[in-house]
């Protein structure tokens, strides 16, 4: 080991002097890093890149006898079919509305929760709250929607009754186009907020305790500590997670929306994912649904790319 | 050290992967994965009955309640008789997803059994994957041939548009002509001194009385739900929904006509743009506005819909509803309060020929129950096994369970379905638990002398009030024979796309109009929008196939 | 002056603490009640549950649901399989992910931007089910336990999270100081980076653990043998076979009467049976979030 490092150290120095470092001339210096990353590269290459030839399906007819990629080339036919579809505008709009609402309200929630938990002084209370809010993540979607049905029922549900008592009258939150998105988003936050806060709690735990001590000496109050010590420590994680969530603008969860759908909220609850499911299950529209999937992906990727570029410029934090 | 070891392993795997995937996409699928090493030449191994049983692999898409296949006596015997040994894969959930991977990779077992487990669209999309059974039936399957001879329509529905037979049909004979029976709470009628309603106006008045008075006699006049129906899905109408009331206006639904298609005087139509549908929605809106329909009818799930009807002890909550069978719908305790009623007329002086929901074909026939792999090395053995299933006496056990435990042999060629041995279970559940039931292939010959269980008998009794109407339906000109029509793959895809768009619009409008009204104002623009979804194109396609069907009949 | 300021500050702090306490209690109640509801619903009469009559205490108590779940002998095989897949799978995940995340966090590693981009692309573009199935089949992993372990064992999302952590929580000077002492990347990763990052390692381990625990899609597509089925598939079977009590009427015949009263119990019971084991894991991981544990231990 030690002989190797002895060899690399002078090497690096010469390379810095000689020319700009690039992938090739730093290879000898960084070979250990390469060894560490190569297993991941191989796994990703095999399981993610090799099957990618399947993307062609979006441009071809699926013809079993000619193999997966042997069907007739259709170009953008299926993309046009989707864009010309008379539901296209509604589907896009519904999808974007739901996912933007999820991002805007759902993204800050776990951060606030993590900051809150971090402020609790009693260790026992802290642990109890932390464990409790983490649990709903494990509830299956079927049960989650089942509970929503039971609790929101205007006649018999606990929330339905509460709304009634508060004087909102006899509202059926499951039945209206206006309440679908709030119910969807809020129940999502309820379910995943605790789980999503874990990563921020981990980030907060790596703050050097000396910083807190010195801020106390400087006479900072609790708000100031949060603003100047806690928040900056989770900013990199926040930015990275925000970039990643912007890569999901056109992908809403399928199952929950599908289960929450009823004929009354259909005008706002039909999204791309549920539409693809419906055409896919009714008939073997492999090519058409691949094309819609690819269309989604491209837009998602564009948003991720753009957010990443902005983040890089503003904060120098980026995915790549 | 540790890392380098993993590295070599990973490298090795990746190289194998490259080598394996490099060689084309489907040429490597021919290596059949099944284990039958014995027979390279099928005829020699199968023709000698005394030889070791032929090993087969099979998939059965069973009902989630159904017990393990290994525990079914009749199945073991049938396999023994056909001299086969079958390794079963029992699938009770998510068959669609499993199938997608299975078919696309060509990785299928010798036999696939299940109701429409492989669809016509699959046969069209995966040519060469499944065997044409025509010759095999002639050679190995006299029982299947007997079914085809006695019930020619079973052959028709087994045959694809190109004349080949890939999937075998079934005939189960005993099921009633409709799924939906109409129930009203007779005790409530009696409590309030009301007559059984016979038309929409009377129904409205009865429901109004249910609502306003204390029909169940518990002192609270507000806890009655006059009318309830099963949750209306976003993918179209289903059973136990008020659409059967369209029958009062002369429309005969087929299999609930979830997507709106029906036939009238030999013409295929769609009720979503029919004036009579407007009348029907207006009536429902009138009822809803008066509080006669369960407020949660459009948002509750099936579980709640069933629970509500079970009331509270012996206090009923629901006045008027639809269901398969009265104890299933209202529970054992409340069932005696309800009576099944005849279809309603539109108004007292209306003489329209009534319709209902006609489901005889879909209840008694089934398509694509059995498919055999083209690549199977033992097609003859597979067919001999399938033939056993179509022996009427085996078929009877496929449907109701083994002789001895589930069916009594009276000794004089007559049989009777036995009540469940577990007293807590109802006959329906017992049937689904003990055997393949309706999910199996079968031929219940008309000559078979079998006495049914109590559940089927009571379904029969409760259908009685509907029978006048159903008997009067002109089955040749007013029923959509969807069970007997096979569309080409291209037409099917086109229709499915159009229907998805159609239902997205119509179902939302339906519930909106019923709950909030406004159909009168929006109707014309709605009809125009519906045209845009491609419904006309679908009607043309369906009319063409329907005419062909009638011409060939 | 000093005194007043001090008093004012502590008063402020007190208000702050009360605010924190109130918010915490509200958050706790909002989350805890539905969880409690699941518990009582799993032993109550389903008819009463869905008509809203079970609110604070179980009613019409019966153990039907749990009897149905534990009466299925496959459940123990399922537990065993899932535990094996989860532990082994998570181990392999970490083995592949952590070193890669470390390498990609090093600013001097020139290839990192390109590799990251190539990785991120896979989060979006995939070949779909069928090409993946063909690949797994050609690797002879279908119907073996390895399909749970190796395919997709590097989750790019988790990799990015870990990398971000390594980037921000390892002071830059640390490696430079170490490398002058003759410390290689291997040694630095093992002796400095990992111990300093226990929090993120445990979070990522938890992410992987839970993903394996909840995974049923892999088994659904690739596993045919009953002996290899994980818990989630078996629970799904039990769940579905009880759901049909509710929706089974209709064309098939009356399958409704029996057990209608308790069908939903299974739904709620399954949640408890499938998640209790994984909930136990959390406190073990939680202890690595204690403020300053890591930094302190290294420096001390």
Automatic annotation (TrEMBL), chain A:
Family matches, as InterPro entries: MetI-like, MetI-like_sf, UgpAE/MalFG_permease
GO cellular component, one term: plasma membrane
Keywords: Cell membrane, Membrane, Transmembrane, Transmembrane helix, Transport
GO biological process, one term: transmembrane transport
Membrane topology (UniProt): Multi-pass membrane protein
Localisation: Cell membrane
Transmembrane segments: 31-50, 98-120, 132-151, 231-250, 291-311
Pfam families: BPD_transp_1
Keyword Cell membrane attributed: yes
Transmembrane keyword on record: yes
Occurrences of domain ABC transmembrane type-1 (ranges): 92-307
Signal peptide: none
Family annotation (PANTHER family): BLL4140 PROTEIN
Family: Belongs to the binding-protein-dependent transport system permease family.
Protein's recorded name: Carbohydrate ABC transporter membrane protein 1 (CUT1 family)
Species the sequence originates in: Paenibacillus cellulosilyticus
From TrEMBL, chain B:
Keywords: Signal
Region (Disordered): 25-49
SUPFAM superfamilies: Periplasmic binding protein-like II
Signal peptide: 1-19
InterPro entries: Bact_solute-bd_prot1
Domain of life: Bacteria
Name of the molecule in the record: Carbohydrate ABC transporter substrate-binding protein (CUT1 family)
TrEMBL record, chain C:
Subcellular locations according to the entry: Cell membrane
Source organism, top-level taxon: Bacteria
Keywords assigned: Cell membrane, Membrane, Transmembrane, Transmembrane helix, Transport
Keyword Disulfide bond: no
GO biological-process terms attached to the record: transmembrane transport
InterPro entries per the UniProt record, alphabetical: MetI-like, MetI-like_sf
GO cellular component, one term: plasma membrane
Keyword Hydrolase: no
TM annotation in the entry: 20-43, 83-102, 114-136, 148-166, 187-210, 268-285
Membrane topology of the entry: Multi-pass membrane protein
Pfam families: BPD_transp_1 (PF00528)
Record-annotated ABC transmembrane type-1 domain positions: 79-289
Main localization, broad class: membrane
Family: Belongs to the binding-protein-dependent transport system permease family.
Protein name: Carbohydrate ABC transporter membrane protein 2 (CUT1 family)
